[in-house]
Amino acid sequence: MSKIEKAEIILKKYLLILTFMSLVTGTVVGYHYAQQLIVSKELIKYVIISLAITTLYPSMIRLRISGVGAAIKDVRSVSTALLLTLLVSPLLSMAIANYIRDPSIRLGYVAANIVPASSASVGYVLLADGSIELATSLVFLTIVGSLLLGPMYLGYYGSLESINVPVPKIAMSMIIAIVTPLVLGQLTRHYLLVRKHVPMRRVKPYLSVVTMICMLSLIFLLIMSKAPIIVRKPSMAFTIILGQATIILAVLGILAMLTKALRIGYGKHAAIAFISISKNESAATIISAVALGGAATVAPAIIPAIQPVLCILYLHLLSRAKRVWGISK
Fold first, then answer.
1. In this model, does residue 3 exceed pLDDT 80?
2. Which among 208, 286, 224 is positioned nearest to 30, based on CA atoms?
């Protein structure tokens, strides 16, 4: 086993602990050096955007879009996943956002739930022995869906809350957040596989390590930049965590009913579940930082404290879920 593979295993094993440490350290440093950080506000913003794009880039290299056509033929699975990802999650987030007092954070919370699936989602599907082909195809489809519907959702929510939402700027930020890493990632994938004939399994550990290190650094910077708000309003952080847990559990509950009604197999159920509940908060960070501003980046920074926890819990519960809901292997 190579050093990079050992590093990947260690980071994955302690990812939840490291995420918690990033949150706590970011809060302490950001609150203690709040005055000094104000001077570097713009620099921190651009570093955050750069880190978010770098976090997304490895997942776009791993994304295989050649099998999308075959997956689209599975109308039941694709429709279920898109319903949960592009309709249920955004609508629930708008309802829950009303319990967050700060309007900028409310907008950021909605933005955090209109983004496509995270790079970790396919990894969860792999660990659950789910359908990798369906999962990778759904990642691509949710990217397209988010690009089309994301600005509309934020514009609609802004009109309901009488918040001025720059829809053109949001559309541009989504292109920066999603299309740029996607194009660069697919070009890199083509170069590695076709030009250099490097198998993806050799590249995967490097991509995983870069993703996890960048994600932890991103969480630290995001929390550090908004630490005074979090310290002054701890109930706000609790509301975001509780709200996201509610959305994830609601989505899984609806999926359980649809799985039984539509007779979706176990492998496809696992793919839909993790694609639907694992949001790409790096993309949400870019949208919030570029288009929304203010404290909008707080929600995408806090959500990683609960999202992977529930994903891992559901991973362990899937075997029991098969018996309870009659999901066929």
1. yes
2. 224
Contact 277, 251 (CB under 8 A): yes
d(CA 168, CA 189): 30
Angstrom distances, CA of residue 314 to CA of 14, 57, 102, 124, 270: 18, 27, 31, 10, 10
* The predicted structure's pLDDT at residue 329: 47
Residue type at 10? Answer: I
Domain 3-325 fold is Na+/H+ antiporter like fold (1.20.1530)
Position of tokens 């929304």? 292
Residue range 233-251, pLDDT digits in tens? 888 889 999 999 999 999 9
Contact between 18 and 216 (Cβ < 8 Å): yes
**The whole model's pTM is what?**
0.80
Query: What pLDDT digit, counting tens, does each position of 178-213 carry?
Result: 788 889 988 999 999 988 889 988 998 998 888 889
Cα separation of 220 and 22, whole Å? 5
Helix (H) or strand (E) holding 243: helix 234-262
**Rounded CA gap, 141 and 135, in Å?**
10
- CA dihedral over 135, 136, 139, 141, signed as positive or negative: negative
How far is the C-alpha of 315 from the C-alpha of 271, rounded, in Å?
11
Q: Give the 3-state secondary structure of residue 1.
A: coil
Tell me the torsion sign for CA atoms 213, 217, 222, 226.
positive
For residues 214, 124, 171 and 85, what is the CA-based torsion angle, rounded to 10 degrees?
-150
| The pair of three-digit structure tokens given for residue 115, joined into one six-digit string | 């983004």
147 is written with which tokens? 């690009």
Instruction: Give phi and psi for 100, each to the nearest 5.
Output: -95, 125
Query: Are 181 and 306 a contacting pair, CB within 8 Å?
Result: no
d(CA 25, CA 104): 24
CA-to-CA separations, 174 to 135, 188, 219, in angstroms, rounded:
22, 21, 20
* CA atoms of 48 and 54, how far apart (whole Å): 10
